[in-house]
Design a protein that fits this description.
The protein is an alpha+beta fold. 52% of the residues lie in helices and 15% in strands. The chain contains ten helices and nine strands. The protein has a four-stranded antiparallel sheet with strand order 2-3-7-6, covered by helices on one side. The chain has a three-stranded mixed sheet with strand order 1-4-5, covered by helices on one side. Strands 8-9 form a two-stranded antiparallel sheet. Helix 3 crosses helix 6 and helix 4 packs antiparallel against helix 6. It is globular, with a radius of gyration of 21 Å. The chain starts with 18 loop residues before the first helix and ends in a 6-residue tail after the last helix. Bound molecules: flavin-adenine dinucleotide. The site of flavin-adenine dinucleotide has 20 residues, from strand 1, strand 3, helix 9 and helix 10.
């Protein structure tokens, strides 16, 4: 075959990266190749992930809360964090979810809105992976509209008493600390809840067909009594959790492209060696069109991600821009995964190849951190000035 190029090299996007960013990307890529790829299909089929063990290794790698400053966090730029997400999600969206929830949701909430004591108590141990966090916003009846949450906290003397439940919470059963959002007399507040507090329990969400290599839980809060200083002092109203979601979405803008890249690379490899009608299926024009369309969307998505990364590094990125990235890149990543599946024919539906696993995972990624529709409404409002949420 003459001068074949990888999908990312096609547009020489690497030229926009600094040496440190490339080095970090290579380090995470190597970790995923050595530690994740050999096992992830089995984890997926079995519906499990050795999250605690991996958290320690990810901590050593320096990717937990890596874009946060101080408290044992690596303090990298946002683009580096994004590139790490791409590599992690090339392994599996469940792995990237583990890192996103830890760093961008639980740690970010404490880092951005917590007291000095809360930061000192949790962040260094979360950066090493010794302590795991989860982020409880969604409820069974409050998903896209978290403002309708029912979980509430009331004052009892100096204490807070939390009651309610949260649904679809990544890392819920294995977390040491839960950041839980609840309604109070003053609106929505965030609480730092050690998961060994009496009244706190978590149980698995059963029968998932997506993100199977990820822990997803229901949290139950039965009159969980917390000291007065368990509240996140700087988080006021729904803006608090929504700003955490922006952080995690930013990681998804890059991350989803990792899953997509793995699909494109797998499809190119497969099409080059699979022969039908006397030649490799990669030599058919219809297959080449699929590969080209996939590679173009992948590279356009990466251009968008890098652009948002640079805006974020300069402190300029807006919530609407992150919505645009999440909407486009997850939608296109899912389309790429489905198209790649067709190229692999029957083999594409097995766990022997990663494409169906990525496609199934991306269904969750399309829904969490704001659904496709909600991000469309965010952008619709940005364009027209007319909110159309209700
Ligand atoms: C694997 C997984 C892990 C998750 N992890 C976490 C976590 O760690 N923490 C956490 O808090 N949450 C988590 N979530 C929850 C996730 O954020 C929610 O599922 C998401 O916000 C959507 O809520 P919902 O599922 O209730 O769907 P709904 O809000 O009921 O939406 C159903 C459909 O209606 C559409 N819809 C809703 N409102 C509108 C509207 N105004 N206009 C048009 N269409 C609309 C939606 O776009 C969607 O298509 C997770 C979810 C999954 C699947």
């Amino acid at each position: 075959m003459a001068d074949a190029r990888g999908p990312i090299e096609l547009l020489a996007l690497d030229r926009g990266l600094g040496d440190e960013e490339r080095l970090l990307r290579e380090t995470v890529r190597r970790f995923v190749d050595d530690r994740i790829r050999p096992h992830v299909a089995d984890w997926y089929v079995e519906g499990t992930i050795p999250a605690r063990e991996l958290a320690r290794e990810l901590g050593e790698l320096g990717v937990l809360g890596m874009h946060l400053q101080g408290y044992g966090c690596a303090g990298t730029n946002a683009t580096s964090y994004g590139l790490a997400c791409t590599e992690l999600e090339a392994g599996d969206s469940g792995l990237r979810s583990l890192v996103s929830v830890q760093g961008s949701l639980a740690m970010f909430a404490i880092h951005r809105f917590g007291s000095e004591e809360q930061k000192e108590q949790w962040l260094p141990r979360m950066a090493t992976g010794e302590a795991l966090g989860c982020f409880g916003l969604t409820e069974a009846d409050a998903g896209s509209d978290p403002g309708s949450m029912r979980t509430h906290a009331r004052r009892d003397g100096d204490d807070w008493v939390l009651a309610g439940s949260k649904m679809w919470i990544t890392n819920g059963e294995i977390a040491d600390v839960a950041v839980v959002w609840a309604r109070t007399e003053d609106g929505i507040n965030g609480f730092v809840v050690p998961t060994d507090t009496p009244g706190f329990s978590a149980r698995p969400v059963g029968a998932k067909l997506s993100l199977r290599a990820s822990v997803t839980s229901e949290l139950v809060l039965e009159d969980v009594r917390l000291p007065g200083d368990a509240v996140l002092p700087e988080a006021k109203g729904l803006r608090g959790p929504l700003s955490c979601l922006d952080e995690a979405r930013f990681g998804i803008v890059f991350g989803a492209l990792g899953a997509a890249r793995d699909c494109v690379e797998t499809a190119i490899d497969y099409a080059s060696s699979r022969t039908q009608f006397g030649k490799p299926i990669a030599a058919f024009q219809l297959t080449q069109r699929k590969l080209v369309d996939m590679a173009l969307e992948l590279d356009k998505g990466m251009l968008l991600a890098l652009h948002l990364g640079r805006l974020k590094d300069d402190g300029l990125v807006t919530s609407q821009q992150i919505s645009a990235g999440k909407l486009n890149n997850v939608r296109e990543a899912l389309a790429i995964a489905r198209e790649a599946r067709t190229i692999l024919g029957a083999n594409g539906i097995t766990a022997e190849y990663p494409v169906m696993r990525h496609a199934a995972n991306l269904e969750s990624v399309l829904t969490y951190e704001g659904t496709n529709e909600v991000h469309t409404l965010v952008l619709g409002e940005a364009l027209t000035g007319l909110p159309a949420y209700r």
